[in-house]
Design brief:
alpha/beta; globular; about 200 residues; 5-stranded parallel beta sheet; about 15% strand; Rossmann fold; single chain
Length: about 200
């Protein structure tokens, strides 16, 4: 992996419009909801459904979806381990900016490596990164195979595919585990909303 580079001759500029002022105008706290799990576990579906519910409640929200991000911000990255690490690093930095903007940010990324998720967590103030593990058995995800990726991976057409030829490291202490194969979508959404209420992020 290439040596990490840092920008030089730059100074952080402090704004008069702070995160606290943005949160006050939005009438809710900002937070990063990090949905992680295997391909086909329901991360994107759940993230967008939660966003819809929050939007209906008047919250300022945005979903960072794995496929969508790779159309632009991370369009230059492949799926090697090094590129996956860089993909999550960029998304983490972007989510941090949204956090400062007072937005409730929902991310839907496999993010298979525990160290990458912990790195993103370390970027945020304590309590502002909520890891939500969409737990779903591999056989269920493979049976769904919404994008046909598992079939290609089994046929050797896709290398380094999480769950088949590349590992997925389950979260050790996520803020929430949702068994997406056992509950209807609306129930899963309710579990996330309840977490936000318990944390005092929404009232």
């Amino acid at each position: 992996m290439a040596e990490e580079k840092h920008s030089s001759n730059v100074v952080w500029h402090s704004a008069t419009v702070t995160r606290e002022r943005r949160q006050s105008r939005n009438k809710h706290k900002s937070v990063v909801l990090w949905f992680t799990g295997l391909s086909g576990a329901g991360k994107s579906t759940l993230a967008h459904a939660v966003e819809e519910q929050l939007y209906q409640l008047g919250c300022s929200t945005f979903v960072l979806d794995g496929d969508n991000v790779r159309h632009g911000l991370c369009g230059d990255l492949g799926f090697s381990k090094e590129d996956r690490v860089e993909n999550i690093r960029r998304v983490g930095e972007l989510a941090k900016l949204f956090l400062e903007a007072g937005v409730m940010t929902l991310t839907a990324f496999i993010s298979p490596f525990r160290s990458d998720r912990e790195l993103v967590r370390s970027l945020m103030p304590h309590g502002d990164f909520l890891e939500i593990y969409c737990e779903c058995p591999l056989e269920v995800c493979e049976d769904r195979d919404v994008k046909g990726l598992y079939k290609k991976a089994r046929a050797g057409k896709i290398s380094d595919f999480t769950g088949i030829s590349s590992p997925y490291e389950e979260p050790q202490k996520p803020e929430l585990i949702i068994h997406t194969s056992q509950y209807e979508l609306e129930v899963c959404v309710g579990q996330v909303i309840e977490l936000l209420r318990i944390r005092g992020i929404i009232t």
